[in-house]
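Reviewer 2 asked us to include a model.

Predict the structure of this chain.
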Amino acid sequence: MSETGLPDYLDKIHAEIEKILISILDDSEKELALKALQKCKITPADLQREYSPVEVRELCLRTKVRVNMSDLNCLFDAKKRLGRRLENRSESYINRMLIKSVVRKMVEPYTDEEVACINLIRRSWLKKVNNIRLDQWKTEREFSYLMDLLTQLDSSGDALELVSERPELLPVPEYTEEFEDMIIDMETEQDLWGIPDEYDTGVVPPES
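Predicted model (structure tokens):
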């Protein structure tokens, strides 16, 4: 286990892919490619994620299964290497040539260690892909539910009404004689507004 929390074989694969990208891309494209690579890398969280029975069932029903008979098959490697020499040949001739390529060690069968390592890498990558699938399907369901809800609201014609609260009314004072005198005083003061002080002819008596 490395410092990243991933098995050593995954760190080695990530380093090799990053090295290849750096070697084939221009300087202007390297930064963007490395950012994209970081999102595609397998993380410890991807490997530690556990699936519920519902998620397992969904993966089984919605994921196509293909068997690649040529994968990790040394005879297929020999067939690719012989290439055109096998074109328009009989089946017996092709079989003899394939056997000869193995006997002469043009190709060698994959060892158990090589098969185990390759299967570990592929299972890790498959776990990453399945995580992406489940998250994508969940997002699609949530988006579909939201769209259906909006469609139902539009078709029903119901609209949310914003009802503003009425302001609280102030209590009305009781009309009494004291209240009437206060109103008269206020009206008298309003009549005096605007009269300049020069018209005030009142004389203040001197203090005794």
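Residues 148 and 154 are 10 Å apart (CA to CA). The first helix runs from residue 8 to 24. We have added this to the supplementary material.
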